Amino acid sequence: MKHYKIEKEKGRLWLIEDAYSPLFEEKTEAIFAQCNGYMGVRAAHPFLSIEEKRGMFLRGAFDKAYDDEATELVNCPDVTWFGLEINEEKLHTDSTKMLSCERRLDVLSGELQIRYVFELALGRKAEVECRRFASADDRHLFLQSYRVRLNGGEPGDIRISTGINGQITNSGVSHFHSVSERVYDREIMESIGKLKKNAVVVLTQCTSGDSKPSKTDFVLKRRSIYGTYCFDGVIEVEICKVSVVFQTGEMDGDKACGHVRRASEKGYDRLFHEHVSAMRKFWEQAGIRIRGMSVEQEAAVCFSQYHIFGMTPYDTEEFSIAAKGLTGEGYKGHVFWDTEIFLFPFWLHVCPEQAKRLLGFRYIGLDGARKKAKDYGYKGAMFPWEAAGTGEEETPLYAALNIHTGKANKVWSGIKEYHVTADIVYAVERYYEVTGNWKFMEKRGYEIIFEAARFWVSCAEKDEKTGMYVIRDVIGPDEYTEHVDNNAYTNYMAAFCVKIARKYAVLLKKEKPVLFEALDKKTGVSGELDTWERFLKGIYLPQPDRNGIIPQDDTFLSKPMLKNIEKYRSARMKQAILLDYSREEIVNMQVLKQADVVMLMNLFPWLFMEETVRKNVLFYEKRTVHDSSLSYCAYAQASAHIGDREAAEKFFENALFVDLNDNPLVSGDGIHAASMGGVWNCLIYGFAGVWYEKGKLSVRPHLPDTWQEMEFKLIVRGIRIRFCISHQGIIMESEAKLESSIHVEAEGKEYEFQGYLNISRKREGREEWNKRQREPSLTWMG
Ligand code: IFM
Q1: Where is the Glycoside hydrolase family 65 central catalytic domain positioned along the sequence (predicted)?
Q2: Which of 411, 481, 490, 628 to mutate to test the pocket of ligand 1 (most atoms within 8 A of CB)?
Q3: CA-CA distance, 626 to 478, in Å (whole number)?
Q4: What is the DSSP string of 419-465?
Q5: Number of H helices, E strands in the chain
Q6: Whole-number mean pLDDT of the chain?
Q7: Is 296 a catalytic residue?
Q8: What is the mean pLDDT of residues 134-162?
Q9: pTM here?
Q10: Measured distance CA(276)–CA(107) in Å, rounded
Q11: DSSP of 578-611
């Protein structure tokens, strides 16, 4: 990482961009964004700048501008612009001489600071400092402080303009049918932007402490409103701008002015203090301390966790996590399997309540998923590949150009990427496993599982030759391979889904007949049991070939390899391969966009022999371009899990810097949410080797040699446990008294964890033991 520098000070960990850089403008706006689970505000300069892509995104603020367009997360009115005039000279980042410019993000608090020194006409200098945060204490609050100081001791006239700009669009498309503005008491500006279903309301007040402006003018322009605050004959002035943002129905509009006023009275510093206290609670629970890591790596780990916090819709199950969080227009704010497979594990172990809300979102979407299944001629529920605010499919139909025809390629994922339906079930099962929350299962979990199982069985076909159940014409996780039969990931996940559905159905029928009957009414499960049994006996699960490779699908191994894969792996532009080959050509080569079979190995860490995992990681990675940000973290986790430290560290490093790398062409349209979750999975499931399944907590660490110690907390079965793992030992300590012990397996021995364990680690023998224990457990399929 060269473009971004790191600085550590007490309680702060800064990522710094130390020069004005139009080339990195979009990227820095996204990765330095202020996000609090309700809003995400891109870190644009307060001055207008040529390359800017200013934006504010609110969880749940979806709209469909035109019938033939997809529903998308609306780019909401902007509050971050500040115009500045000093002695009638207008300042600009692109036209005024800038002596220095620094933009920095504190990854612990999420505060952004931007500082400039300008040289004005006649050689005078002016310093401008802008600070911002989206409050974690009051999620509708966005705070900014804007300070201007004239150097040289000579006073001047300073005019600061700022307000609410509703002219913002989603790449040219305005979602607002109307934007109405007003000013309350010559103090508070208001903008109401009407969407189809609701409206986005922004209120803003600027205060300037003791240095009152000599004049304040409010100007109403088409869809924008701003105030100009004039300070005459001053050396320094500081404005605190409080913005309250909400959508109709979330807050009492009449009370919103009072909300703004109360916040203004408190001021930036006090509100920041309250925000930091809230963030501290998050870090106390989520923080991972690793001794021996470089400061860059430490910052990157914290960076990913700050964004996981900021991207996750707080306090609601109406919405879920977008693939780009709340930091950009990329993927239109849609929700993918990224949530359940990459981000869900973090919340499962850090805040299971939040994990439950993420599943709640899918439950609410069940009817949409039922409709999709019906539309495609299947039974049960077929979850959308891309979801917005409902369970309906939102994947756009066309994307990138076909280089031969010059026309847009059809996007098949929404039609053929079935695996998301099993990924959701996998998350439900993990949730039940780790929390034991049977109430959730009874109210929602079983229904999701049964409906998904019905879907899988209805889309499988019996192969005439082999007599086995096969799943044809799908796209697996690797999106460079379309329309294939028996994608290994998909088939195994489908089998897993039907397997647990059957297990629960049989159990409930026997032990909870009333519940079973109610579920039967909704899902028709009783009529499925025999079919499910036949499916489980006959489903084709690709096995390792004589080289130990699990075929990604029926034809993958017979295709030629892509020559010159390095060209595309090292290209600055993602998916550069599409500039040289058409989709059809790519589909007919052994080239992966992202991990596929290896993802399966991560989800079922005890399913395959260590040797099989090793061979498949090696084989498939050679053929992977890593054009998806979901890729490196997957290879890293698998490598760490089997103790291939060298490979794990190499892939982990790439995963850590998916957004923080020096490539200005990535992340401009938003951070890569899944990769951030993937970093956590790799740390906890991979390097720390902690995994809870079937009532047993296994701890099989594979720390890199340079790391001396890893410390973190995880919630398992309602108990928050502090782990401290080093090369010498494993310490586990619970925060509260345990009602019953947890079965632990570590260092080749079994323990009963009753609140405290201190296990010493012997280096020799450990690897051997790990290997011995890795017998494949295909029995869960039987
Ligand atoms: O879900 C992913 C997919 O696996 C690869 N393309 C991007 C999507 C969103 O991150």
Answers
A1: 304-681
A2: 628
A3: 10
A4: THHHHHHHHHHHHHHHH--HHHIIIIIHHHHHHHHHHHHHH-EE-TT
A5: 22, 33
A6: 95
A7: no
A8: 96
A9: 0.96
A10: 12
A11: HHHS-HHHHHTSB-BSS-SHHHHHHHSTTSS-HH
Contacts of 568 (CB under 8 A, 6+ apart): 562, 576, 577, 625, 627
Question: What is the Å distance from ligand 1's center to 441 Cα?
Answer: 28
The two structure tokens encoding residue 471: 């799943």
Reported as a single tens digit per residue, the pLDDT across 721-768 is 999 999 999 999 999 999 999 999 998 899 999 999 999 997 544 555
- Separation of alpha carbons 335 and 484, rounded Å: 24
Q: Which strands, in side-by-side order, build the sheet including 756-760?
A: 289-291, 709-716, 719-726, 729-734, 756-760
Query: What is the DSSP secondary structure assignment for residue 125, as one 8-state letter?
Result: E
780 marked as part of a ligand binding site: no
Å from CA of 593 to ligand 1 middle: 10
What pLDDT digit, counting tens, does each position of 76-87 carry?
999 999 999 999
Site to substitute for ligand 1 among 394, 479, 624, most atoms within 8 A of C-beta:
479
Q: DSSP characters for 537-568?
A: HHB--PPP-TTSPPPSSTTGGGSPBPTTHHHH
Q: Which atom of ligand 1 is found nearest the CA of 324?
A: 10
pLDDT at position 469: 98
Give me the helix-helix angle, 673-681 and 295-311, nearest 10°. Answer: 120
Distance 694 CA to ligand 1 centre (A): 30
For residue range 270-299, list pLDDT tens digits in order: 999 999 999 999 999 999 999 999 999 999
